[in-house]
Amino acid sequence: MASDVRRLLRGTRLQELPAADQARALCYVLREGDPDDLQLAELRWDQLVATASTEMTEALSDGAANLLWRDEPDGRVSRYVRFAAQRRFADEFLAGLIRHAKTDRSPGTAAAGRKMAAELLRDHVNPMDSAWGRSRVLGELGQDAPLAAALLASENAGRERVKAWVAWLHPVFPDFLAPYRELLGDREVNGTALRKLADAEPEWVMGLLHVAGRLGKLEPVLPGILRWACEYDEMDTRAHALLTGALMSMRTEEAGGQGAIDALLLLLGMAPRFLPDASGRADSAVYQNGFVWTWTRGRRPPRAGP
Questions:
Q1: At what angle do helices 38-68 and 19-30 cross, to 10 degrees?
Q2: CB atoms < 10 A from the CB of 106, how many?
Q3: Which residue from 151, 144, 153 is spatially nearest to 125, judged by alpha carbons?
Q4: Helices and strands per DSSP (H, E), number in the chain
């Protein structure tokens, strides 16, 4: 069936059909989620978009979602985003992709898709452009706190860009961003506020860790993280997995921060990441300082005997 519709879209007989049926045929193949069908979209989009703009945009989002929201997301979904951006409907298209995240999916599928979706948003939304402040994307993100946190965690273009995302997200997440503003203001993150955020939306604390690591500013975050981590036996399984996962994947070039991460991992019962390479480095003393500072403050005293 799909192959027959593709032949129709490539041929001249398509013009014998009413415009609405031509658009319906294009929507049918786009929903299949085959990136090669974007060639057909290139061929027919401009002539049909006036007939069925909403339906065609939804079909493109449906096809892209089939590539994105799966256990192993297909990076070719970025071709769909570029197609939409070139035709100036990236906002509507990306909002559709986010809506698909709300359908029933396994936790593994949701997490894998969320990471790639965050990178697509990072690369195609400009938080410094006031036009995006009224976007459909922002409205959809307001209903998906974990994806918004993943967006912050994915930013790798420096402090000013992170500040722009924080300002952009504030209208829909006014209660979650105070720790980020404290970090960006070079102030120690309030431990009580961080713990409340961890209890409500732990993904936002993981995002904070990623941001702090990339900016080389773990010091303002560590006291609050440490107090939370030292209570890990009271965490639910999901929060513990999120925290250890963030510590294992976050990036930092700061030797003291690497030492602190290793100490936290050990406190959480995990193997250290950076220790094998730390001893022979010129900045090994800085690594050791970070490790010792964190370990001595996080290690709980032994329990008294019977």
A1: 40
A2: 10
A3: 151
A4: 17, 0
Q: Name the one residue in this structure whose structure tokens are 């993943």.
A: 150
> Are the C-beta atoms of 77 and 101 separated by less than 8 Å?
no
Within 10 angstroms of residue 19's Cβ, the number of other Cβ atoms is: 13
Euclidean distance between CA atoms 184 and 73, whole angstroms: 32
CB-count burial class (<10 Å; 0-12, 13-18, 19+) for 140: buried
- Are the C-beta atoms of 24 and 52 separated by less than 8 Å? yes
Find out whether 13 and 5 touch, Cβ atoms under 8 Å.
no
Give the predicted TM-score (pTM) of the model.
Answer: 0.89
pLDDT tens digits, 152-196: 999 999 999 999 999 999 999 999 999 999 999 999 999 899 988
Q: Name the H helices within 69-190.
A: 77-86, 90-100, 107-124, 136-141, 145-154, 159-169, 178-184
Of 283, 281, 263, 284, nearest in space to 273 by CA? 263
User: Which amino acid makes up residue 77?
Assistant: V
Q: How far is CA 219 from the centre of its chain?
A: 23
Q: What's the pLDDT tens digit per position in 250-274?
A: 999 899 999 999 999 998 889 999 9
Q: Look up residue 115 and give its amino acid.
A: K
Residue 245 corresponds to which amino acid? G
DSSP states of 226-292:
HHHHTTGGGS-HHHHHHHHHHHHH-----HHHHHHHHHHHHHTT---SSHHHHTTSTTHHHHHHHHH
